[in-house]
Amino acid sequence: MDAKAVGNTIAALRRRAGMTQSALATALNISDKAVSRWESGLGFPEVTQFPALAALFGVSVDYLMTGERKGIVLAGNILTDTVKNIESYPEIGMLSSITSVSQAVGGCVPNTAIDIAKIDRSVPLTAIGCVGNDAAGRYVTEQMQNHGINTEHVTILADVPTSFSDVMSLPSGERTFFHARGANARFSPEHIDMSALNGNMLHIGYILLLDEFDKEDAEYGTVMARFLHDVQERGICTSIDVVSDNDGNYKKTIVPALKYCNYAVMNEIECCSIDGFEACDENGRPIVENIRAAMEKIAAYGVKDKVIVHCKQAGFCLDVASGAFTVVPSLKIPAEEIRGSVGAGDAYCAGCLYGLYNGYADEELLRFASAAAACNLFADNSVDGMRPKNEILKMEEKYGRLTL
After folding, report:
1. CB neighbours (10 Å) of residue 148?
2. Where are the beta strands (DSSP E) in 200-249?
């Protein structure tokens, strides 16, 4: 053990808990001077004091002694989805029937975190974002807590509602979103205690839908870029996701953040929109050479490790260091088994993050992520279709893969 490192860990945990040195001393029935010596790196707690400290701060003894970060932090959009299944999308002024309505969680944070929790409950997960002081905020927070996700860093705002989306879902699985920004529009780096980031990976989304993070920054280009820089300075790997926004300035808003990303995950439209590539041909098939060229441009903007892109037909991974480009077609799910695709991008991202967290090779990562995304097709909402890891691994054998 290194006394200075242990002292820094105790100090960070104490501040996160909102405790003074005196309050910590009182809780442990020791002197203020003892706590001060620990935090200055001039001494260690007694061996018998480590379990009490760990219990007080809600961490493991190993973490106190080594400062090793474990787990994934999910930050960004938190919202509720009202999923409305419709028979067809009407022309303006026309009517289409709604066949069913359901409520579910939505947004990068709950979707991705709950999906990872369902894949493997052993991964430590932390949610960071903002909700309103309302029934929707309590609903989405409770749903995350029910899956073992740490929500103590979700900020409740008293004067704005929880963000929500009305999701119009077609029988084909295609969907359209009508979104109210709500509390997400207020979420900013000020709501994040950097000293409390215990994970070794932080994923944030969605760029183009986080108003405070999308703002310009004189030095870094955007507030998001500055935030990601600060996270990397703490030795934490960073990952971003993007939202498809008809009105978004993709290049201006996304590019500054790429320099401070270890991983960039997005769909083919978002990827190709940054530099104006055509993602699909007139028949809706992905133009692989264009997607690869767009991914190489993204890597050139500064992504450190991998660029990952997904579309309906396939997933693509560009390893920045080697230049290796990997393509894995999607699973061949029969149309009659598809109930929806709300949250499919987040499910794919969850599979990617799980694979990256566990050191999967690129092809293995894409195969796992595409199978995780396919699980999403078996439910109307964003998370109910996800399955445990052992079931996901069996899906390729059952369904096979498309041919590009």
Report:
1. 14
2. 201-207, 216-217, 221-222, 237-242
